[in-house]
Structure formats: C-alpha cells, structure tokens
Amino acid sequence: MPVALENSVVLDRLAHVSMARGAHDLGQRLTALDRWVKADLVEFEAELAVFPRGARVVQEAAHHLLDLGGKHLRPTCVALASRFGEGFTAKARSLAVSVELVHTATLLHDDVVDVAEHRRGKLAASVEYGNAAAIFAGDWLLVNALRKIGATKVEGLLDKMLGVIDDMILAESLQLERRGKLVANRDEYFKIVEGKTASLFRWAMIAGARAAGLDTRAEQALDQFGLHLGVAFQLIDDELDFRTGTGKDPFVDLREGKMTYPLVVAIERQPALQAQMEETLQQPDNTADFAAIANTIRETGALVATRKLAEEHANRALEALSILPEGPARDALETIVLASLERKS
Amino acid sequence: MPVALENSVVLDRLAHVSMARGAHDLGQRLTALDRWVKADLVEFEAELAVFPRGARVVQEAAHHLLDLGGKHLRPTCVALASRFGEGFTAKARSLAVSVELVHTATLLHDDVVDVAEHRRGKLAASVEYGNAAAIFAGDWLLVNALRKIGATKVEGLLDKMLGVIDDMILAESLQLERRGKLVANRDEYFKIVEGKTASLFRWAMIAGARAAGLDTRAEQALDQFGLHLGVAFQLIDDELDFRTGTGKDPFVDLREGKMTYPLVVAIERQPALQAQMEETLQQPDNTADFAAIANTIRETGALVATRKLAEEHANRALEALSILPEGPARDALETIVLASLERKS
User: Fold this and answer.
1) Domain that holds residue B48
2) In this structure, what are the phi and psi dihedrals at residue A318, rounded to the nearest 5 degrees?
3) I want to staple A290 with a disulfide (CB 3.0 to 4.6 A). Which of A79, A251, B9, B309 is the partner?
4) ipTM of this model?
5) Is residue A1 part of a domain?
6) Hey, of A140, A173, A187, which one would you mutate to test binding to chain B, going by the most B CBs within 10 A of its CB?
C-alpha cells in the first residue's frame, strides 16, 4: 500500500512547523486561520444556503442534516487549494458546495446502514424522517452534487468524483463485510481509509487546484496533501473513539465492531484480544465492558501508536506542501494539519 | 400537465396499426420482433455480462438482481432508436447497459424502501444480503452507470441522466409522502408517473437517437414516443395489480396504499371509497378484504377507464413515430406498444 508508512519516518516537517509556531499557541493560529478563511467560508455558506430546498420530504431530510453545519473541512480544502491560483471564484465555490453535498449524502446513507440515532447532536434524518426518506435524500444530494460539478465544466472533475464515490462505496462494503470480525489486517485497514475518507479530501484539493488553474505539479502536491491529511484525520477519529469527554460519544466504533487502527495494533500485539472482543460483541450492549476493553487496548500502547502514525501522515501532508509558495494559503493548510491532530471532535 | 390527455382523443393510429396487423396475431408479430431484436439483445446481454463483478458484497447484491434478467425493455428502446441511424454500435450498447443499471439501481433502493420480500421470483437483494448491502449496491450501480455514460462522450447524455434521476427521486418522494392517503389527484398521479417511469424510457430513446446521430426532429419524435410508451406501460402496470393469474402478485400496490390510476378514478367516481380504504389500510393485512375492495373498484369502471387511457397513450406513442421512416425499427417499436397493452406481467 503506498499510503502505509514505515516506522522510521523522521517527523522533520511536523517538528519544524510545530516549533516555528509553538504548539502551545495553536489556539491563536486557529483564530488567525479563522479570520483568514472566514471570508471564504461566509461565501461558501451563502452558496450552500441557496441550494434549493423544495417541498419534497427527501429535500427536507437532506436539509435537516445540511443545516446542522458541521466542520465544513472539505469545502475549506477546496477554498484553500484555490487560493494558490485564481482564488475562490464562483466555480470553486460551486465545487466546495458539491463536496459538502457528497459528504452529507454519505452520512445520510451511513446512518441508515449503521442504524444510528444521532448525528451532529440531533436526531439522525433516518430517525426523524424514516429510512426511505433518508435513502432517497442521499440519492438526491449525490445527483445534485454531480450536476453542480458537471455545470462548472472543469475538465475531468465529474469523472473523478464518480471514481471517488465508487471507491467510497467499495470501501464501505469492505468495512460492512468485516464488521464484527476483528482480524488485524493493515492492508485492508488502509484500503478502507483511503477509499472512505482520504479519496474525498483528495478530490477537494484537486477540485480547488483545477478550478484555480494550477499546474500539474502543484495539483499533484495538493492531491498528496489531501491523501495524508485524510488518513491522519481518520486515525485521530479512530483514537477519539477511545476518549471520554470529547464532542463525540465514546466506544461507538468499538461497539459496532469496526476495525479501527487502535484495534489493529492492539490485536497484533495481544492476539488473545480478538476472541475476547468478538465474544463481547455478540452480547447485548454493556458500557462497563467497553470501558474495560478500551483500557486493555490502551495498555497495549495502541493509542500512542495511532497518534504516532497520525503524526507521520501529518508530516507527509506538510512535506507535500513544501513545493508550493509560502503565504497565507500554505500557512492555513499547515494550521489545518496541526489542528486535525489536536481536535477533540 | 402536458401528458394528460382529453377523453375525446380518437385512437386512429392505434386502430390502424392494430388492424393492419390483426390484434389476434400479436403473438406472431412478437415472434417476428423477437427474431429481429434478438441479435441486438444478444449483443446487449454480452455487454451486460462483462459488467465487472468484483469481490465485494455490494457487487454481489447488485449482480444478484442483474442476473435475474427481467424484460430488458429499456435497453431494447435504446437499440431500436439507434436502428434509425448508425445502428446498435458499441456506444449504443454501452448506453443500453447503462439504462439497465440505472433501472436496477432504482429497484434495489425501492425494495429497501418498500420492505419487499421478492423481486423477479427470487428473494429481494435487501432480504438476501441485508438493507445495507442493497443500499450501497444501488449506489454502486448508479455511479457505474453514470461512468459508462460519461465514457461514451455522447453530448449531453450524462447531464440528462442526472436530470432523469433527480426526477425519479422527487417522484418517489412524492409517492412516499402520499402513501396511505388516498386523495384522487390526477396532476400528482401524472407527475409521479412521468418522473418515476416515463423519464427513463424517454432517456433510453434519446440515448439511442444521439448515439446513432439522428437529427433533432427524429430525436424529439422518439422522446415523445418514450414518454407515451412509459405512461401506457405504467397504466397497464397499475391495472395488472387488480388481476389474478398474471405473472405478478395481485393487490401489492393496493395493500401499500399506492395511488394507482384505477384508484384515482374509483375515488373520483365513488368518494366514500376513500375513507373506507384508508381504514382498511390501517388494519393488518387481509387478502379477502383486498379482493373485495378490488371488486368494488372494478365495479366503478375504473379498470376499463385505465385501459382506455393506456390505449390513448399508446395511440400517442404511435402518432409520434409517424414522422419516422417505415421499416423494421418502426415496426418493432409499434409492436412493443401493442405488446405493452397486452402484457400479463
């Protein structure tokens, strides 16, 4: 797997960027980033706000989730990539909205598949409007995202998005097939992460680059940035599942038998854990058990290893940026990488 | 609604075509059609057979339904439209496969939404592989159909298909919202039929026309043919729900509270039926009751009215063909219209 890193990677770039800024004042960096990115985000939100509502229940179910906001990290990626070229033009804004629509579509279908009750602190659309409406709402968002991308007429982006969605579905399918079977398989883990998470980040970076007329070398650098940011993002997501007191409920992935990276490492290091956990998963829900299992996993050093790998991918993302001109756009992307490592939700 | 016909339409064309051929020897006509179309269908099936399988459960679930065959009416429409021009080329075959993939994708999602147990005489994919796999299988077919359409590079077809899918979703949504509420609303009925059924037939005709290089006038005629064939097809589908001894289980739509055309007419003619039926729908399933209700509906003349309207649309479909050159392609399309009126499943 090209994305799998060796343990010997030296985190030069990450150390350099963190030191130059002081990890302690990440908060200030984020505030500065916020100021710099805010104008683009306001424009993005204005564009998203005019995305048609309509009278149908599928449209209502789609907007139920869209209106809850979220981090808008993927549209931010489009905006920042575009800032290396012609900027956040109408075309780039339209692509930013599209990537958020696709992301939201996958959340709608995921919540049906996972029988999830909540999303972004509210009832899941599948609970509020029913599975049927949530399925068609996802279909509707997907199709309208594709129409928007097609309408920008930026070379190759529609075709590329269709490839991304194909990757996402096959990754979701693999994850579905493996659910509850806790086999530590690194290749499969990275295949799922690349398909399910990183591919959409990559598209967002490429979309911003192409809309803004960047050359192939810059586009490839931003593509690599998206890949490693996406993997780092997912690794931290995996780790957050083991922490309490964050913005997310703990042990959700664990309870569902999802093969997260901490689980891969823990089972590699302590193979007896596999049978033990598979048995627990077949019993009815038991919070106490999961907290205890989480502790056992922590004791293998799996969470430290997860964070370390996330840092390695963060380092790779920063390395990818090094060929791009210094300035506020690069600065902002670097800050996003650091913030992804520090995030609590 | 442009598609709603006045009752005064004279069925000239239908009478003419039926008489010229003898309704009694429709079987022979179909056999002849079968011979003429068979070569194209064999090529279509060969193309469909090489559509990638893959190891993922979503791919298995998708092929579970694809492999059961079905009537392949939409691909046949692509093939016959193409025969007015350059013929059933690789491009046209690829579009024929695409329209079948989209149709199958909608069936997969419909079966999840309808909690259907069977499809084409076998377990529904959602039962055999689970809802999650069926949802993602539908997504996968949709995306791969779109990729195939994009790859043909026929002007405007990908964008048009995205519009068709949008129409289909909004029609499904409207139908979903109205389920169990038996309000006789013709405008809504035709809106749903046009979106859910006719739009894909129209696309199939246009796709065949464009792939084969037909002029705008011919394309528009075939588009109109697709519209009216689609509406006639759905009307007969509605009527078949009231008949026993066909290839389909009776009273499925009735049981689900779907607003079929016979119901629209019956409730217009006998408004008390609405409350009566809505009450029945809230009770647990009862076959005897549905047979009795079906009889009451038949007694209002609603089934005769449905057949009459189907004939009117069949007539319009035949009229649309009149500007096209006579020959085996037109002959085959005419036979399809007649066969649609006579079909038993």
Assistant:
1) 12-342
2) -65, -40
3) A251
4) 0.88
5) no
6) A173
